[in-house]
Amino acid sequence: MFRVASADEILWDVEEEHLDEAEFLIEVWSRALDMPHYDLRDLARGPERRAIAHLDALAVGGPEVAARLLQPLLGDPEAPPFRVAAALGALLMGGDWRVLESLDRGGVSDSRVSALTAVVALAPLSAFEGSLAAALEEADGGRSVYLLNMLAARGEDTGPGVVAGLSSSDPALARTAAEAVVRSDPLVHVASLEGAMRSSDSRVRRAAIRTGLVWGFHPAWELATRLAESPLEEPESLVWVASLGDGRHWPLLTSALDRAETRGVAIWALGFSGRRHAIELCLPYLEDEKLAGVAAEAIAAIVGVDTSDSVIWKPVSSESPDADVAAGSELPALADDDLEADLTPTVEDRLPAPNAAALRALCEARCAELSPDLRYLAGRVMTHACVIDALHSGSLRRRHTLAFELAVRTRGAQLVPTRAAAARQRAVLEAVTELPRLDFGASFEQMP
User: Does residue 91 belong to any structural domain of this protein?
Assistant: First the structure.
C-alpha cells in the first residue's frame, strides 16, 4: 500500500527541482504550439511527456508538498506565471479540485491566464470532465476568465456559464466567452454574439467574428471582409478572406501585399489560400531578408516541399536566432547599443531560410501541374482527408488556422482543440471517421 511521506522524509531539494523543471517545460510546451519546427508527435514526445512526469512527481508528494510548496504560489501575485501553473497542475493531478475556487487569488493578467490555461490543457486529468463547467456556473469576474479559457483550450462545452460573459463589460471576460461559446447552441447565443462583434475592443470583436464564421453567420463574414479593407485594424481578416473567400477578394490581398506595413501578414495569409497565383505573388520575396522565411513557408504550404531538403533550405544553424555571436564579430559599443530593445526571437525568426534559386526552380517545375481553379495543401488538391492529414502531422504553427477553416466548413461539427494536449488532439482527430465531401474551393457565401 502506498504511504504518504512525512515532512521529514521528503527530499525538498528534489521537489524544488521538479517544480523548476515543470515550470520550464510548461512554458516550452506553450510556446511550441506556435512553432514551425514542431509537429504533434514532437510535442507529445518532448515537452509534454516531460512536463507531465514532473507534475506527477509533485502530485505524489502528497499534502506536505502541496501545503508547503504548491498552494502558497496560487495566492502570490508576484510569482512567475508558469511557476503558478506548475503548482496548479500538480494540485489538480493530485485530485484537489478545490483549487478551482481560488484561481484568481493571485490576480488576473494575460500572462497568468495563459500559463494556467496551458497546464490545464496539457495535464492528463481524466476525472476532470465536468468539473470546470460546474465551477463556472458558480463563478464570476476573474475566476470566470480562467475557467472559460481552460474549457476552450480543452475543447469542452462551457454549459450555461458562458451566457453572462458574452455581455460582460470586462473585455477579458467578453473575449474569452466569445471564443468558448463556439461549442454552444448558436440559436441561443447569436444575439449576444452579434453585440460582441460590434465591440470597440479588437480582441473581443475578433473572437466573436471567428465564432460567427464557424456558425455560418453571414453578418460575421460581412464584417470580416470590411475589416480586410483596413487590415492594420484586424490583420487576421486577411487570412479569413484568403481561406474562405474567392476571386472577388484577391484585390484585398494584393493591396495588403503592396503596403510595407501589411506585407508580412499578407504573405502569411496567401499561404492559406492554396492557390497557384499565391505562389507567384510570394516568389519575389524569397530574397527579402525579413520576409524570405515567411514567403518560403507560404509557398511550401501550397506546393509541398520536404522540410529536410538541404537543397531547398539553408542550414538552420547558420541562421538560428539562438546562435552565439559569430566568431570574430564585435559587440556594439555600449553607447550605441539599445539596452531597451526586445531581443526575444519571434516565431518568424525561427523559420528556415530558403535557397531562393532552388525553391524558385522547384516552383517553376511544379506550378505547371497546378490548376488555377483548385486549392492545394502540401502539393495535394485540398480535400477533407488532406486537411485531417495535415492536422495529424503538419507544423504546429499552421495547424490553428487549418483547424479553424475545418470548423467553418463543417459548421462547427469538427472542432479540433489545437491548444490541448497531443493525446487529446489525436483522440479528436481519430474520432473523425466520416469524411463528408467538402468543397474547399467554395467561398463562405457558397457553403451550404
Answer: yes
* DSSP letter, residue 410: T
- Output the furthest CA–CA distance in the chain (Å, rounded): 73
Domain of 58 in residue numbering reads as 1-128
111: in domain? yes
* Structural domain count of the chain: 1
Beta bridge partners of 376: 381
Across 4-18, 309-323, 434-448, least confident range: 309-323
Contact, 296 vs 354, CB < 8 A?
Answer: yes
For 18, the grid coordinates are 521538479
d(CA 84, CA 254): 45
Give CA–CA dist 364/178, Å, rounded. 44
pLDDT digits (tens, 9 = 90+) for 396-423: 999 999 999 999 999 999 999 999 999 9
- Which residue, 180, 184, 183, 182, is CA-closest to 153? 180
Residue with cell 505573388: 281
Per-residue pLDDT tens for 269-307?
999 999 999 999 999 999 999 999 999 999 999 999 988
Cβ atoms of 277 and 371 within 8 Å: the answer is: no
Assigned domain for 192 exists: no
DSSP string, 13-44: HHHHHHHHHHHHHHHHHHHHTT-TT--HHHHI
**Residue 413 covered by a domain:** no
